[in-house]
Specification:
162 residues; alpha+beta; Trna Endonuclease, Chain: A, domain 1; 4-stranded mixed beta sheet; 5 helices; 4 strands
Length: 162
């Protein structure tokens, strides 16, 4: 039961951390303003999912794209996964192979640390120490979230006792 309270950041949490880091780094690395998320995944009701499919949403498209040409690649696509778990689906591998064939760099990153490192490597920049500062901010946020979850669990426990 002791492992039940351990909270692991979701793929979304990790992705938010990447964009927070990118915002801090933009003055030093202006190319980061071009980094964006492709909102392909997530839960949707049937009507919204059908509409999005009709609009061209495709399964397996990577999560992040940095449309900056470097070292012979047209841009960098990143498939984000959470640090632990986070299974890569066959469609995601298929997209990665196709994008690589077309001259893009494709990578699968497990967590914000991995993604930030891949972006820095791709752009040929050093992380300038901002990564650790940003990760400390993220850890503070995660700690606050854990406190909130603990308070929620206490409330639920009180409700169950009644």
């Amino acid at each position: 039961m002791s492992g039940w309270n351990r909270w692991e950041p979701s793929e979304s949490d990790e992705q938010i951390c990447v964009f927070e880091w990118a915002a801090v780094m933009q003055p030093k690395v202006p190319e980061l303003q071009l980094l964006f998320h492709i909102p392909n995944g997530g839960y949707r009701n049937k009507a919204t999912a059908a509409r999005m499919k009709a609009e061209g949403v495709k399964a397996g498209v990577p999560d992040l794209f940095l449309p900056v040409a470097r070292n012979g690649a047209h841009g960098l696509f990143i498939e984000m996964k959470k640090r632990k778990g986070g299974k890569v689906r066959e469609e995601q591998y298929t997209w990665g192979k196709a994008l690589t064939f077309e001259g893009y760099q494709f990578t699968i990153c497990r967590g914000a640390d991995d993604a930030i490192g891949c972006i820095c490597d791709y752009l040929g920049v050093k992380e300038l120490g901002m990564r650790n500062e940003k990760l400390e901010m993220r850890n503070e946020k995660l700690g606050m979230r854990n406190e909130k979850l603990g308070m929620r669990n206490e409330k639920l426990g009180m409700r169950n006792e009644e």
